[in-house]
Design a protein that fits this description.
Helix content is about 45%, strand content about 15%. It is of the alpha+beta class. Helix 5 (about 95-105) packs antiparallel against helix 6 and helix 9 packs antiparallel against helix 10 (about 320-340). The longest helix is centred in the last third of the chain and has 29 residues, at about 285-310.
Length: about 400
C-alpha cells in the first residue's frame, strides 16, 4: 500500500495550511491570560467556529445536500492534521458535528434533517449527548430514564450524568427506555430534546482541573413532541451504536490528539535539563520518546484501516474501538511522561510565575478522564474481542 498523498492532495494541504495560518485566532492578550476562564475560552472558540463555518471548513465531509462541502475523508483527515499542527480547536459544536449530525443523516426524517442540521453546522444550536446514568455507568443498555407516550408527547423522567457541555447545550440527543418490559437491549428509543424545556435541570460537575464541562441532567415530566423521535420506536439501541461508532471514529481518527502531544513532548524534551544535559540527549529518555513515536505511527496506520472502510462507503465499525483505545491510553502515557520531565514544575498552575508553557498541570490532571470518556477502555476491549477477534462473549 502507498501511504503517500497524491500531488493533488498535497496541493489541497497547502491551501488548508495557508487558510488556517492566515485566519487562526490571535494569541491571548496579557489581560486575557490574567483573567482566563471557561467563559472567555468558550466565546473565543465560538468566534473561531463561525470563522471556520464561513470558510467552509465545518462539516467538511458532510454531503452538500446537508450543508457540507462533500469533501472526501482524505480531505477531512488532511484538514484535521493541519488543525492539529497549529494546535487549533475544531469549534464549539464538536458533539453535534461528529455524533448528532451523522445520526440525523442516518436515522432522521426529512423534516428533522431540514430543521436541525444547518444550526448544528453554524453552532447556532449547541448539542449534547444524553447517554450515561448514575446507575448504569458504561452499560448503556441498562439505562432507566423513562419516556412514556401520552398522545402527541413523550413524558420523560430520569437522570443523566457526565454529559459534556450540557450547561451550554440547546438540544440533547437523549436515549431513554420506552418499553420497560423488553430485554435491556430492546425497548430503548432516541429523542431530540430541547434543553430549555420546562422540567430540564442541569447541574455542572466541577472536576479536579477546575473545569466544569461535565454535567448532571435531571428530567422531571419533560414533554417531548412525538415527532422528535429519532429512528424507530423501541429500536434506539441501533441508533445508539451507530452514534457511538461515529463518536469513536471522530475521537480516534479525526482529532489526532496523540500526535499533538508527541510533538509537544519532543519540544519539552529539547528544553528541559536533566543531570546537566537536555532530556532529549539522555539515552533512556530518547528510547522512551522513540517508543512513543513508534506507537503513534502504528496508531496512525491502524486509523487508515478505519478510513478505508469510510472511503468504501461503509459506516465506522468496531475497528474504531482500536483507535479510541490506543489513542486515549497512549495520550495518557505520554502526558504522564511529561510530568517526569518537568519534575516539580509539573505541579505549577498556569497562572504561576514559573509555570512551563503548555498548561501541563491541567493536562496531567485531565488525561485521566480520557480512558473513560467516549466509552471506557474496558468496554473498548470487549468490543475488539467480540467484533474484531470474534472471541466468546463474557
Amino acid at each position: 500500500m502507498d501511504f503517500n498523498y497524491t500531488p493533488e492532495q498535497e496541493a489541497y494541504r497547502m491551501r488548508v495550511r495557508k487558510w488556517l495560518e492566515e485566519n487562526q485566532p490571535p494569541p491571548l492578550t496579557p489581560e486575557e491570560r490574567e483573567h482566563i476562564n471557561e467563559d472567555l475560552l468558550w466565546e473565543r472558540n465560538k468566534k473561531w467556529h463561525k470563522r471556520l463555518y464561513d470558510g467552509g471548513w465545518i462539516g467538511l465531509s458532510w454531503p452538500r445536500e446537508y450543508g457540507g462541502r462533500g469533501a472526501t475523508f482524505i480531505e477531512q483527515l488532511i484538514f484535521q492534521q493541519e488543525l492539529a499542527r497549529l494546535n487549533l480547536p475544531m469549534g464549539v459544536n464538536v458533539l453535534g458535528i461528529i455524533m448528532t449530525g451523522p445520526a440525523l443523516m442516518q436515522w432522521g426524517t426529512p423534516a428533522q434533517k431540514e430543521r436541525y442540521l444547518k444550526p448544528i453546522l453554524t453552532a447556532d444550536e449547541i448539542w449534547c449527548e444524553g447517554m450515561s446514568e448514575p446507575g448504569a455507568g458504561s452499560d448503556l443498555a441498562a439505562i432507566q430514564t423513562r419516556a412514556e407516550l401520552h398522545g402527541d408527547y413523550f413524558v420523560v423522567n430520569g437522570q443523566k450524568v457526565w454529559t459534556t457541555i450540557a450547561h451550554r447545550a440547546d438540544f440533547c440527543q437523549l436515549f431513554v427506555r420506552t418499553d420497560p418490559t423488553a430485554p435491556k437491549h430492546r425497548g430503548l428509543s432516541a429523542l431530540l430534546v430541547d434543553m430549555h424545556s420546562p422540567g430540564v435541570r442541569v447541574q455542572p460537575l466541577r472536576q479536579i482541573t477546575g473545569d466544569a464541562e461535565f454535567n448532571e441532567i435531571f428530567f422531571e415530566d419533560v414533554r417531548v413532541p412525538k415527532e422528535n423521535l429519532l429512528g424507530p420506536l423501541n429500536q434506539g439501541w441501533q441508533v445508539l451504536l451507530s452514534t457511538l461508532m461515529h463518536e469513536r471514529f471522530g475521537i480516534s481518527e479525526t482529532i489526532g490528539g496523540s500526535e499533538v502531544i508527541l510533538t509537544q513532548l519532543l519540544e519539552l524534551a529539547r528544553k528541559v535539563e536533566i543531570n546537566g544535559v537536555t532530556a532529549a540527549d539522555d539515552h533512556e529518555i530518547r528510547q522512551r520518546l522513540a517508543q512513543f513515536a513508534i506507537e503513534v505511527t502504528a496508531k496512525r496506520y491502524n486509523g487508515l484501516r478505519a478510513l478505508t472502510k469510510r472511503l468504501k462507503g461503509q459506516p465506522p465499525g468496531a475497528e474504531s474501538s482500536i483507535g479510541k483505545l490506543v489513542s486515549t491510553e497512549l495520550s495518557q502515557k505520554m502526558t504522564k511522561f511529561a510530568s517526569r520531565l518537568l519534575g516539580n514544575f509539573a505541579t505549577l498552575e498556569r497562572h504561576s510565575l514559573f509555570a512551563p508553557d503548555g498548561d501541563w498541570l491541567r493536562r496531567i490532571l485531565q488525561v485521566e478522564a480520557l480512558t473513560i470518556a467516549g466509552g471506557t477502555s474496558a468496554v473498548q476491549k470487549n468490543m475488539i474481542g467480540e467484533r474484531n477477534l470474534h472471541l466468546p462473549r463474557d
